[in-house]
Design a protein that fits this description.
This is AAEL008584-PA. InterPro entries: TEFM (IPR039150). One of its GO terms (molecular function) is DNA polymerase processivity factor activity. Helix 6 crosses helix 7. By secondary structure, this protein is of the alpha/beta class. It has two domains: 79 residues, AF1531-like domain (DNA polymerase, domain 1, Orthogonal Bundle); 213 residues, Ribonuclease H-like superfamily/Ribonuclease H (Nucleotidyltransferase, domain 5, 2-Layer Sandwich). 28% of the residues are buried. The protein is elongated and about 65 Å long. It has a seven-stranded mixed beta sheet with strand order 3-8-7-4-5-6-11, with helices on both faces.
C-alpha cells in the first residue's frame, strides 16, 4: 500500500523505509523466507535498485533479460514495487530466482564482478556428443531438423566467411498417423532421408525421455515412443551419409533441449511458445555484408524471397514447425559454431 505524509506517522519504523514521498514495506515476508536473509537496510537497497535503475543497469545482477522485461512492463503499468515479494506476481519469477536476484544486489560490486567472471568461465555443453572446436573452420553447411508429432521439418544453411549465413532450404514432411507400425516408420524415414539436403553437419533437438503423461495412458506412451524412434532412425540414416574421406566426424548432433527457445525468447515458464513472431522479425531484418563488424555479420541470416513464400503458403501448424527448425539451426550456429558472446551470455547467468 502506498502511504503519504501524516498517515505514515502511525506506522512502526521497522516496517517502512522512505525514499522521497514513497514508503516501502521493508518488513520481510515469511512467504519468501526473507526475514532471516535480509536486514531492513538491505531490503531498502534492493527496493531502491528495483525501482530506480533501468533495465541495462539491472542486467549486471543475476537475472535474465526476459525477466527484466517483465519488471520493466510492471513498472510502466503500476509504478513502484512496494515490497520484496510483490515481484512474485510477475510471470517467470519464483522464490529461487528471486533470491538469487536479490542476493546479487545485496553483494558488494566487487563480489558481483568476481562472480560474473566465474560465470563467464562456465563451459556450457550444448550438444551430444560434444561439438569439437577443430571442425568449425571446415563447416560450410548445416541442416537442422525439428521433429514433431505431425511434421518433420528442416532448414539448410550455407556458411560463408565474412558474409551473413544464408537459408538455402526450408521444407517439411507430414506424418499422417501418430500410431505407425515400425515398417511404416521405416518407409516414412526412407522418404524423409531422400528429401533432406546434403550438409556437413545435421542437428536435431535432444528428445525428451519417452514416457506417458498420465498413468495408464497407453496412447500417449506410444506417441512419445514413436517420436523417439523417428528421431533415432532419421539421425542414423544421416550419420551414414559421411564419406570415408570426410574430416567432419561425427556429423550428427543432438542439441540441448529448449536452448533455441531460450535464446530467441520463446520459452515462457516451462513451455515453448509460438516462433512465428520471431521468424517474421528475422525475415524483415535482412543485412548486407558491410553493415556490421565481421564478427557479427556471419551470425545474421538472409532468407531468400522464395523461401519466405514457402513459409507463408503453409498453414499455421506447419509454419510453426518450419519456424522451430530454422531457430534450432540458428541457435546451433550462434552458440557452437560462431560462438556469439551475446548469445552465450544468456546461458551463463
Amino acid at each position: 500500500m502506498l502511504l503519504f505524509g501524516a498517515r505514515c506517522s502511525n506506522v512502526p519504523r521497522n516496517c517502512l523505509g522512505a525514499t522521497g514521498l514513497r514508503y516501502f514495506n521493508v518488513k520481510s515476508t515469511p512467504r519468501l523466507g526473507f526475514p532471516c536473509a535480509y536486514s531492513e537496510e538491505e531490503t531498502r537497497k534492493i527496493l531502491n535498485k528495483l525501482n530506480e535503475e533501468d533495465v541495462e543497469q539491472l542486467y549486471k545482477y543475476n537475472i535474465s533479460k526476459f525477466r527484466l522485461k517483465k519488471i520493466e512492463g510492471w513498472r510502466k503499468k503500476f509504478g513502484t514495487f512496494m515490497s520484496l515479494d510483490q515481484v512474485l506476481e510477475l510471470d517467470g519469477f519464483g522464490i529461487t530466482v528471486l533470491r538469487k536476484f536479490y542476493d546479487s544486489i545485496v553483494k558488494n560490486p566487487e563480489d558481483v564482478e568476481a562472480a560474473a567472471q566465474k560465470v563467464v568461465k562456465k563451459d556450457v555443453k550444448f550438444t551430444t556428443p560434444i561439438f569439437p572446436v577443430n571442425i568449425i573452420p571446415k563447416i560450410q553447411s548445416c541442416v537442422s531438423l525439428y521433429v514433431g508429432l505431425d511434421y518433420v521439418t528442416w532448414a539448410r544453411f550455407k556458411l560463408s566467411k565474412d558474409e551473413p549465413t544464408v537459408l538455402t532450404g526450408w521444407n517439411s514432411f507430414q506424418i499422417n498417423d501418430r500410431k505407425l507400425h515400425v515398417s511404416e516408420l521405416i518407409r516414412n524415414v526412407t522418404q524423409i532421408n531422400q528429401l533432406i539436403p546434403e550438409a556437413d553437419v545435421y542437428v536435431v533437438e535432444n528428445p525428451a525421455v519417452a514416457q506417458a503423461v498420465a498413468m495408464g495412458s497407453a496412447t500417449q506412451t506410444n506417441i512419445n515412443v514413436q517420436k523417439s524412434q523417428l528421431i533415432a532412425m532419421i539421425m542414423l540414416m544421416l550419420s551414414n551419409r559421411v564419406p570415408d574421406s570426410s574430416e567432419i566426424v561425427p556429423n550428427v548432433y543432438f542439441f540441448k533441449q529448449y536452448a533455441s527457445a531460450r535464446l530467441f525468447g520463446i520459452y515462457v515458464g516451462n513451455e515453448r511458445v509460438s516462433a512465428d513472431g520471431v521468424v517474421r522479425s528475422l525475415m524483415e531484418r535482412q543485412i548486407g555484408p558491410n553493415e556490421e563488424s565481421v564478427e557479427n555479420v556471419q551470425s545474421k541470416v538472409v532468407i531468400p524471397s522464395g523461401l519466405k513464400v514457402v513459409y507463408e503458403e503453409n498453414d499455421n501448424a506447419e509454419r510453426e514447425f518450419l519456424g522451430q527448425s530454422m531457430l534450432l539451426g540458428l541457435s546451433f550456429l550462434r552458440l557452437c559454431v560462431f560462438k556469439c558472446e551475446d548469445s552465450l551470455k544468456i546461458f551463463r547467468r
